[in-house]
Amino acid sequence: LVGTVTVTYGSSGYVNVTYNVSDPYVIQSTHVYAGYTMFPRIGNKFTVAPGQYTNVGPYTGPIYVIAHAVVGLPDPNFP
Question: Rounded CA gap, 13 and 56, in Å?
Fold first, then answer.
C-alpha cells in the first residue's frame, strides 16, 4: 500500500480525483476513467488499459470511476 485515492462527484456533474501518496513514493503518471459503464469502451470492446481512458462529463446519476497511478521510489543516486 503506497497511498489512497479520494473521489469527489459533485452536483456539478464533474468528477475530481485526488491521489494521496505516502513518503517516500512519488507518482510518475495517472489515468482516470469516469463513465456510465463499469469499464471504458474503445469501439465495441471494453478495455481496462490505463492509456485508453476517456472522460466525457458532466455526468448525471450513478457512475463508475477507475483511478490508476504508476508509483515509484525516487532514485537516491539521481541528483
Answer: 10
Please give the pLDDT value at position 48.
85
Burial of 55 (0-12, 13-18, 19+ CB in 10 A): middle
Strand partners, 31: 68
Which of these, 69, 72, 77, lies nearest to 32 by C-alpha position?
A: 69
Identify the bridge partners of residue 34 per DSSP, sorted by sequence position.
55, 65
Residue with cell 497511478: 69
Name the grid cell of 41: 469502451
Q: Note the pTM of the prediction, 2 decimals.
A: 0.82
Beta-carbon contacts of residue 39 (< 8 Å; ≥ 6 apart): 33, 46, 47, 48, 64, 66
